[in-house]
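Researcher: Structure for this, please.
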Amino acid sequence: MTAKPGHKEGGREEPGGMNKENSQYLRMTQMPVGSLVFSLAVPTIISMLVTAVYNLGDTYFVSKLGTSASGAVGIVFSLMAIIQAVGFTIGMGSGAQISRLLGAQKTDEANRVAASGLLAAAAFGTLLSVFGLLFLDGLMRLLGATETILPYARDYAAYILYAAPVMASSFLLNNILRAEGKARFAMVGLTTGGLLNLLLDPLFIFGFGMGIAGAAIATAISQCVSFCILLSWFLRGKTIVRLGAAGISKRPGTYLHILKNGLPSFCRQALASIATIALNVSAAVYGDAAVAAMSIVGRLFMFVFAVNLGIGQGYMPVVGYNYGAGLYDRVKAAFCFTLKVTGVLMTVAALAGFTAAPVLIRLFIRNDAEVVRIGAGALRAMCLAMPLVPLGVVCNMTFQSIGRSWTATALSLARQGIFFLPLILVLPGALGITGVQITQPLADGLTFLSCLPLTVWFLRDLRARQDTR
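Model: Predicted structure, token format:
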């Protein structure tokens, strides 16, 4: 039986006779859409920015060890993207399903999805850790490490792999909190870990003389602290969704459904990893300076993209809740609001980044003119395409949130797969290093064009659903 507002089915009573489930349901389905998206997005943006800052921190501190060490960060970034692919696949797959279930007020089913998702994330993270450590050198070479970069990449990657099960599980817990509209809880866990990482980086790298391994150990420790904080919200009863061994599903269908819902995230993250590998391999032809330059540009773009992604992840539970509740006018309003805000922000960031490109690259490596030259050109090319990026992100997250997994998967394949990979295989051979620099911007432009007809169809479908209610 579906619980109605005021019903106490499995709920925890709040003052005034309303339990947590119903209170959150009313907030998600009645609060003005712009204010709701903004309230969920701000904690998520803070979390994403702190994550981006500590990624930049790793790059900054490691760059003081030399160009080869800086290139190793870009190599291991591909490995971290693989771990993220696992975490986001299960996390976003569980989260998108949980939002719709909570919108339909099916809390017990949401609990089952959450507990099963946590088990799956820990298991897949453990497999990655075991196989990665067994084949470490071969894996680093596969990810694009040159012989001079390999020793640094090996030292950095080993500790990241030890932490893989915790990292994958953290992504899962983070997405569950956001799915139920508790973005502030997720923010506390992620920002605490990120700030701790920034403090530990210089201590371990320089204070303890551990070099690049110190940066990896700092990241591993901060990820464990972040996981403990995220888990504590569930153990202390601060959430709607509950985790417990009794809730773990024994039915394969539960896990298949999670994976189906998370398939767009898997494609997005896995292809990002493959694209980074392809980019590193293509850049390595032009030396360590090119690998280091593209690594720095990638981290800078992710810092800007974190705001766009943070708003999008604040938007996803709003869409899931209201689509599950049949409130299609609110879904449309949330879509339009999010697209406008992210479009404006990315345009402003693009103008600033284009103007200050050489200065931004020199913040990381001042004494290598070749790194600055290659990096500034690549960053300016990225800035030209930045205003086009939000439509692809918002469309992808929308279709994933409403359960149209195959459409979302196709969009996930587009940016880094269908468009980027063929271009990175062709353009460097034709244009040299310029081909490496412009591949991602061209892929972003083609992704934007592919999203236009899907946007028109989605808005028409919402109008038709609203008219038939």
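Researcher: Any notable elements?
Model: The radius of gyration is 22 Å. Residues 67-103 form the longest helix (37 residues).
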